[in-house]
Amino acid sequence: MALKSLDDLLSEGVSGRYVLVRSDLNVPLDGATITDDGRVRAALPTIERLADAGAKVVVTAHLGRPKGTPDEKYSLRPVAARLGELLGSEVPLAGDVVGEQAKAVTGSLADGQVALLENVRFDPRETSKDEGERAALARDLAALVPGAAFVSDGFGVVHRKQASVYDVARVLPAYAGGLVLAELEVLAKLTGDPQRPYAVVLGGSKVSDKLAVIEALLPKVDRLLVGGGMCFTFLAAQGHGVGSSLLETDMVDTCKRLLAEAGGKLLLPVDVVAADSFAADAATRTVAATEIEDGWMGLDIGPESTAAFAAAIGNAETIFWNGPMGVFEMAPFAEGTRGVAQAIADSGAFSVVGGGDSAAAVRLLGLPEDGFSHISTGGGASLEYLEGKELPGVAVLSEGA
Ligand code: 3PG
Ligand code: MG
């Protein structure tokens, strides 16, 4: 069965009807302050279109990884406030997921109004491995919104087989939201027949997280640039000492094999910014990547590496970037990420930024968002798509409910 879209739903008419929307509102917080509201802004168009069409819009979402029980630290309260500001009308937050408060808030919703349910991961059934438990939560969600349609718009979470992403789409008539469709369309360009040269820039802390995507992409790309914490395991695989930099010893052999398979395609940093501690006020020195001394840790790629990466990026016609080049949250270690991001923005290539962290880096470092063809809201989801894995939250939309 073909995937039904938000447009299909809108042409059926939604005035006066409940629509349950799954959004990804998992934003970075500093206490109760949202430090990057990109995901809230990205969720807005679908919610707005439904509200404008007169639907009673009930949004369900998660924040962080609470342990299946209410935890104030992971409350969606700041998100409800921000969503209300952006929509220009207050968004009531139900204080629970499917309990009395959720019933009260959804029951009193007016046509065209938007409400948010509390963090769906406060309910242990959301992430349960037991299909029956997840289905029970999905039914409880559906019971809040009699006669509803379900719009799946949380692209960042479609790789999760969870009750509010997957199971609910089997209980209610399900439609793909505008954000999910836009993200899929962009990623399809990367896996189809990308314009060459095709360069992929990977960073972030762990090789183990990126192993599958490296394996999947190596045969397809012309250049794979590796920075971030994960580059040190590759440097160790080349036989270099990495001091106290991040190192996954159990991945060294795998990195050796990848380096051999990659031939000249895989580019590693030639210099790094090393620090004597993991702190913004640490003593730092820029050293050759092959000469990191004991007691020093690499926390960013160095200027020569940034220039070499920028040159490879400048040659590319298609670029995918996931993961920062260093600890960009601390000013002394932000230049690698800034330089690479700027090179991508300047390249004129078709460029996709994937991942919560890299997307946040673009905005926190003040780079022009319109310098990139697409800034994805999905980290894990976009990587799994590029790995060629099926995304459960997307696959289920074609099943038909
Ligand atoms: C994300 O931030 O990657 C998404 O919101 C999914 O969250 P999760 O990794 O905790 O499932
Ligand atoms: Mg994640």
Low-pLDDT residue spans: none
The small molecules bound here are: 3-phosphoglyceric acid, magnesium ion
The counted number of beta strands is: 16
The total count of helices amounts to 15
Alpha-carbon Rg, integer: 22 Å
What amount of the residues lies in strands?
15-25%
What assembly state would you assign to the polypeptide chains in this entry? single chain
General form: elongated
Q: Give the helix proportion (percent range).
A: 25-40%
Query: Strands across the major sheet, in which order?
Result: 10-9-8-14-15-16
What's the pLDDT, averaged over the residues?
A: 95
Report how far the terminal alpha carbons are from each other: 10 Å
> From the helix content, strand content and strand pairing, which structural class follows?
alpha/beta
How would a textbook summarize the main sheet? 6 strands, parallel
What would you say about this model in short?
The protein is α/β, with parallel strands linked by helices and 401 residues long. It has 15 helices and 16 strands.
Could you explain the architecture of this structure?
The protein is an alpha/beta fold and about 400 residues long. It has helices at about 5-10, 40-50, 75-85, 100-105, 130-145, 165-170, 180-190, 205-215, 230-235, 250-260, 305-315, 335-345, 355-365, 380-385, 390-395; strands spanning about 20, 30, 35, 55-60, 115, 150, 175, 200, 225, 265, 270-275, 285-290, 295-300, 320, 350-355, 375. The chain is elongated and about 65 Å long. The model has no long low-confidence stretch (mean pLDDT about 95). The protein binds 3-phosphoglyceric acid (3PG) and magnesium ion. The site of 3-phosphoglyceric acid has 9 residues, from loops.
